[in-house]
Amino acid sequence: MTLEVAVKRVYEAPAKADGQRVLVDRLWPRGVSKKDAELTLWLKEIAPSDELRKWFGHDPERWAEFQKRYRAELDANEETVAQLRGVLREGKVTLLYGAHDEAHNNAVALAEYLRA
Q: For residue 95, what is the enclosing H or E element?
């Protein structure tokens, strides 16, 4: 079974093609109302730990190490990962994030983790 996982900034307008919309940030994004976000689920428990998030600081030079550390956190967070995989079994899921960097963020790392 191929997993349909997309990644999108939460500030972009929702679309039917998004499927189920899951916010994967620990903190609620500034300036976005819960109504406008049109979330299926806010899965803040799957976000990187505060310690890891602050260490990374969206520094592209720390990206490879961030991914490695985040994968270790995900491996230890079986229950929450299983919950997200359950949502994925129902069809396409779009992982939503608030970061400005579209290439180096936890949603991108999480999507790669889920596809692996």
A: strand 93-97
∠ CA 78-81-87, nearest 5°, is 140
Tokens of 19: 């499927």
Q: Give the integer Cα–Cα distance in Å for 5 and 3.
A: 6
Per-residue pLDDT tens digits for 69-99? 999 999 999 999 999 999 999 999 999 999 9
Q: Go through 55-78 and write b for each residue having 16 or more CB atoms within 10 A of its CB, e for each that does not.
A: ebeeeeeebeebbebbeebbeebe
Which DSSP symbol is given to 110?
Answer: H
Q: Render pLDDT for 47-57 as a digit per residue (tens, 0 to 9).
A: 999 999 999 99
- Stated as kind and residue range, the H or E segment containing 72 is helix 63-75
Element (H, E) at 69: helix 63-75
What does the alpha-carbon distance between residue 83 and residue 62 come to, in Å, rounded to a whole number?
28
Q: What is the reported pTM?
A: 0.95
And the tokens for 67?
């991914």
